[in-house]
Structures are given as structure tokens and as C-alpha cells.
Amino acid sequence: MASFNNTEIAFRSKSNIKLKKAYYLFKLMGKPALAAIGGKLSKIAFTLHLPIAGLVKNTVFDQFCGGESIEECAVKIKELANSNIKTILDYSVEGKDNELDFNRTMKQTLASLDYAKDNKDIPFAVFKITGLARFELLEKINFGKILSEDEQKEYNRVLHRIDKICKKAHQYKKPVMIDAEESWIQDAIDAIVEDMMRIYNKEQAIVFNTLQMYRHDRLDYFKRIHKDSIHNGYFVGMKIVRGAYMEKENSRAKTKGYPTPIQPNKEASDRDYDLALEYACENINGISICAGTHNEESSRCLMNLISVHKIEKNASKVYFAQLLGMSDHISYNLANANYNSVKYVPYGPVKEVLPYLIRRAEENTSIAGQTGRELNLIELEIKRREAN
User: How far is CA 328 from CA 168, 297, 303, 322, in A?
Assistant: First the structure.
């Protein structure tokens, strides 16, 4: 079992300068008001074409992103690989809603698969369906509304983009993960991903869906999909996360007057998360998982399940995943103990990735104890180095 308290292993890839830069960054993110103001000011500065791209790139972008292009990510990929950590390239340009941008995102995802094809350090590709389709179109489909002739043609183009990505992933035998999104478009996303699984997961799990376990219905959904896979002869691929839209979900449910899909408390989310890991390991012959978590207890839970079910630590059916720039004490110590550890490495032009970076800062301030834990570990490592 890996220990998550070894700061020497966790930060050995960071120079003293980079370690102190990370310290001050997390210190800032530990103050929600400052983080929020900083995000808004950055948006305004980019809108007014003020010269702040260099500042952003050398601070928050450098901490959480791999580069502005796939090629620029090569340095981070190699740095991670030197510590036995794999990479998932994530084109993190968000909020686009036109065909030109949807096709650009598709081409970027296909390019990431081409780049990963013969690279053992990149085991997955990833994309969001809202990077390929209008949110409003998915919402209409989600609620079973009739599409106009033009909307049906638009939806057919969406399906073509998704199929093109999944087909290439299958051709390369390089799994692709499809992110979960808001509950009021998730049924539409699930239906698409299930169809892709039935087509491309006949020999192994190539297409992965994502479970957000802060939703109270996801464990049952996981079990239902597994039963369907047995009946229809395909393998299940699942990325398991807690979720990223909780405040938005609760707010919308309250405003529109329907029961929230969110768990009643954090304990329920934690329980279902660990139960999903347990279910996957109990049925590992037909299920592959990527456990996306910054939670130490869930990481320990999965390590224990791997041991109990006699699964090889570096078997391709089980991965641990964290975001670049966060929870290095988990990622690096897992990799050092020979578990499959992978980092999400976002990339894209600084201005275009700004919404992602602001969300990262906001999530750090909202996750109880996350920033404090990161800061504490960095402080311990700085003191350890100063003492030697």
C-alpha cells in the first residue's frame, strides 16, 4: 500500500522555485474572495486585450496545464513519465457553440489519439460531448422533444463526430473517456455513450462513460449498464468521479421545483463512490475503471480492493487519476508503488483555457480541506529540504 505522506516522492519533480510558486498559488486559492476576483479580472483583461497572457501562462496555467498545443505538452508528459505517471491529454477549450469550433474540437481529439497511438505514456484520450454539440440541442433530446429537420441534421453531425473519434480509438486500441456533464443533458449523453460501447467495446473497453457519484442514482445506473453489457456482449468502461456541478445542480432543482439529483450529504457521495469501486473490482472481468479522485480514503479503498481481489497493481483494467497540479502526494506515491497513476493534462491557448482555469481555482476553494491539505504538504516539503 502506498503512503500519501511522503512529500519527498510527491514533489521530487519540482525544483525549489516551482515548489514555492505552487505554495503561493495555493495560498491565493485558499482565499475564495481573492480567487473569484482574480478570475473576473483575468476575463476582463483578456476581453480588453491587456497583455496578461504571459503572467497567466507562468503562474496558474503552468500549474494546471501542459501547454498551448499537444506538442507543447511533450515536456510535461516526459516529466510525468520519469516518475512512472501516465498522461491523459485533455483539450480544455470550453463554452463553444458553433459548427466550426465543434469540428475543431473533434480534430484536436483525433490529433490527441494520433499522438497517443504508439506512446505508452498516454493510455487514454478524453472529450466532452458539449465540445462537439450545442448544449440546447442535447437538452432538447434529453427531454424527448421533437427535433426540427435542421436540428435532426445537426444532431446527425454530432453523432458523426463522436463516432469518428470512437472508431479511431477502437482502431488504435486506445481507450477514450467521455466526460459526464449536467444532469439535464446527461441522459442524452448516456444514450450516445451506451451505443458507442455496444459497437466498439466487443473485445475490450475502448469507450468509457463517466459516473458522477454525487448523484444518488449513479450506482444503480452502473449496475444496470453492467447487466446490459452481459446481455449484449460488450465490456464496460467507466471513469468514476464525485462530480463537478453540485452547486449548479442544487440551484437549478430549487429554482425549477424538482427533487435534486444530488446526494443528501458528502457521506452519501463518499459511500456510493467506494461502493462503485467495490462493484467494479468484484466484476473486473467485464469492467475497466479509471478512478478520478483527489480523496485519499477512496484511493486507499481502491488499493485495498485491488489486493483483496488479487488484481495486478498495474493491470490495464484499473487506473487512478488526478488533475495536473493537484494531489501530487496521491499520484506520485501511487506511481512509486507501481499502481497505474495518470494525470489529466489540459491544453489549449491560454485565453481559451481560462474558463477551465477559473473553474479549477473555484473548485479548490469549495472542496473542504483541499487547498489546506495541498498547502500543508508543500510546507512540509519546503521545511524538509531546508533541513537537509
Answer: 31, 15, 17, 8
37 and 170 assigned to the same domain: no
> Residues 18, 158: one domain?
no
Are 106 and 178 in the same domain? yes
Classify burial at 12, counting beta carbons within 10 Å of its beta carbon; exposed 0-12, middle 13-18, buried 19 or more: middle
Judged by DSSP in three states, 237 sits in: strand
Separation between Cα atoms, residue 378 and residue 11, nearest integer Å: 8
Q: What is the domain range of residue 41?
A: 1-62+356-388
> Are residues 75 and 187 both part of a single domain?
yes
How many other CB atoms are there within 10 angstroms of residue 37's CB atom?
11
Same structural domain, 72 and 46: no
Write the secondary structure of 29-86 as one string of H (helix), E (strand) and C (coil).
Answer: HCCHHHHHHHHHHHHHHHHCCCCCHHHHHHHHHHHHCCECCCHHHHHHHHHHHCCCEE
Amino acid at 320: F
* pTM attached to this predicted model: 0.92
Tell me the per-residue pLDDT of 277-332, one tens digit each, with 9 for 90 and over.
999 999 999 999 999 999 999 999 999 999 999 999 999 999 999 999 999 999 99
d(CA 245, CA 252): 11
Polymer length of the chain: 388
172/278 same-domain check: yes
> Which among 235, 239, 213, 339 is positioned nearest to 287, based on CA atoms?
235
Burial of 311-320, coded b for 16+ CB within 10 Å and e otherwise, reads eeeeeebbbb
Query: How far is Cα 381 from Cα 295, in angstroms, rounded to an integer?
Result: 20
Q: Determine the angle formed by the axes of helices 16-29 and 370-387, rounding to 10 degrees.
A: 150
Amino acid at 53: A
What's the domain count of the chain? 2
DSSP string, 333-383: HHHHTT--EEEEEEES-HHHHHHHHHHHHHHHHHSTTHHHHHHHHHHHHHH
Asked if residues 343 and 323 have their Cβ atoms less than 8 Å apart, the reply is yes
pLDDT in tens, 82-117: 999 999 999 998 767 899 999 999 999 999 999 999
